[in-house]
Amino acid sequence: MTKILILNGPNLNLLGRREPGVYGSRGFEDYLADLRNRYAGQVELTYFQSNHEGDLVDKLHEAGFGAVDGVVLNAGAYTHTSVALHDAIRAVEVPVVEVHISNVHQREPFRHHSLLSAACRGVICGFGLDSYRLGIEALTGNAED
Ligand code: DQA
Hey, which residues does 43 pair with through a beta bridge? Predict the structure, then answer.
């Protein structure tokens, strides 16, 4: 069974309540239950969310040396600021797919640049919560080089 960690950064604990016009009205735990059902018997999904940059770095270290097969990472605003997360993604051995719910390129200019993309296996953005499923598909071998 493939093991994948979904790692969410700051403010994503507020999904469903936070700017529903941008991020939708569904809480993440509710969506995660659907994802787990969809991949039952195929993919074991673990989930961690933190509002703290260092916690996200720690989790990447914990997961990134064989504990899981890949990471789907939505680093939230740290995407645009965090050298520490860039370095952590480069440091670990497992592939990391960067995902975003919104299409960051249609939004404010400060969201157009990611410090993480260059370190990640690939980037998916703009498909709402379905961005996470697409990230899982990429990690489970359905995306070809
Ligand atoms: C986000 C986009 C980021 O710019 C923002 O800071 C977030 C969420 C997204 O999923 O669309 O917190 O990563």
Answer: 2
For residue 47, the model assigns a pLDDT of: 98
Ligand 1, atom nearest to 99 Cα:
10
Q: How far is the CA of 99 from the centre of ligand 1 (A)?
A: 9
pLDDT of residue 141: 83
Residue range 41-46: mean pLDDT, rounded: 97
